[in-house]
Prior knowledge:
- This is SMI1/KNR4 family protein.
- It comes from Lysinibacillus alkalisoli.
- By secondary structure, this protein is α+β, with helices and mostly antiparallel strands.
- It is 33% helix and 22% strand.
- It has a single domain (8-100), classed as SMI1/KNR4-like, CATH 3.40.1580.
- It contains four helices and five strands; from the N terminus they run αβααββββα.
- The protein has a five-stranded antiparallel beta sheet, with helices on both faces.
- The longest helix has 11 residues, at 90-100.
- It starts with 7 loop residues before the first helix and ends with a helix.
- The mean pLDDT is 80.
Amino acid sequence: MKLEKDHFLYRIWQSKRDWHEDLLIYDASIIEERNNTWETALYFPDYLAIGDDGGGRIVYVRKQPNNEEHYFLLDVGCPFMEHAQVFNRLSEIILWEEEDD
C-alpha cells in the first residue's frame, strides 16, 4: 500500500482521536489486510478501505484525493461506488449513523 505522506489519512492516524464506538478507522497495519481480503484493488482500484461502521458498511477514501477529503460509505457487498453515501468529514458519518438508528 502506497500513500503520499501528505495524504489526509496520515492526519487521521496522527490525531489519535477516539472516534465514535460505531465507526472503526483501521490502523495502518490492518488496512492492507482488509483491502486484500475485500479485493478493493480489483473492484475499486482508485479507492482504499480505511474502516467500517460495524454494520456491514465500509468507509473508503480516494487513493489520490483531489485536494478534498471525501469519505465514501458503501455496503460491503455492493460492487458500485456510485451507490455510496458521500461525506466530507468522518464526523458526518457518525451523525448520519446516529440518525439512521
